[in-house]
């Protein structure tokens, strides 16, 4: 199949839209395929275009109006998912789609799948194991998230559809009492945490680890991959640009980039940097004694240059909370604690917290930390109440 040379267009988002003409219909109008990609430069975008054309010429293409769900899922989504999702998420979403949706939607055209069809499948879904007799609403929402990922790629990167039908699916609320999710630490619990870190229950490594999670709001994989060179003691910042992930073979590996962005640089307090400088000195002394100079000098890794597993960081945290008598929360919940702590201050803008957490969209921050924003609104309301109640007999003066 001969494909005309395509074009590259830079979008406002910073991404690039690739477009190729693959033929002409019976009316003589061109048949075009579109694909949106992330690329650091226009030159790299053209490299993506050449690779796409080569792939199309080798494997062929279908008119976008006739592409079926099964075709898109197997040949396009699986390829793109590896670049935009964590390996663990790709495995989970693939299992969900294979077991829950593929048999029904395989031969249906992408453009013809309707929200009510999706809802019917999810509502009727039953557990695949005998360990449980009912699926929770949370599990069913996970089904929708997996399917939504397929349609999002079809809409945003291939322009096969203009609307994601999953966004119109609303699940009924559960009437049964559901198990509450673990809450982040309150301000009083944060004070207890900081006090425990200075006590006998905390090692130097535990203190450095917990303070890194709390001060930077980074994920476990990002913390496991942070290196000495990522700390700038002149500007008091920490640069996160890589992460430790579980790959398709269920083995941990280092990968460039973060979950939602290429990198992020976090301003941190001077006291934290002094703590980390002392901790790094101990690591540097250990390498000096061993007479080694590894390529990667992970903050929480071994002197030989091996990274610490994210699961090991969690176990360290769990042992500490048990010894210190703190309420047990996940290590990941320190990230939530950090965000909630900052958002509870009405002087800190949501945008700043969004950048700290590395969310692409501020709405993600708002959806996850809405409770903290409600506390901020209440604090603002109380300030007005204090003003109006202070001298209720006097006429308020507004300058």
Structure description:
It is a single chain. This protein has 399 residues and is mostly helical. It has helices spanning 42-59, 69-84, 87-105, 115-124, 137-156, 187-197, 204-216, 220-225, 270-290, 310-324, 333-343, 350-357, 362-368, 370-390, and strands spanning 7-10, 16-24, 30-37, 231-232, 237-240, 242-246, 252-256, 264-267. It has three domains: 1-61, no CATH class; 65-172, Tyrosine recombinase, N-terminal domain (DNA polymerase, domain 1), CATH 1.10.150; 187-380, hpI Integrase, Chain A (Orthogonal Bundle), CATH 1.10.443. The strands form three sheets. It has a three-stranded antiparallel sheet, covered by helices on one side. Strand 6 and strand 7 form a beta hairpin. Helix 2 packs across helix 5, helix 3 (87-105) crosses helix 5 (137-156) and helix 11 packs parallel to helix 14. The longest helix has 21 residues, at 270-290. It is globular, with a radius of gyration of 26 Å. It starts with 6 loop residues before the first strand and ends in a 9-residue tail after the last helix.
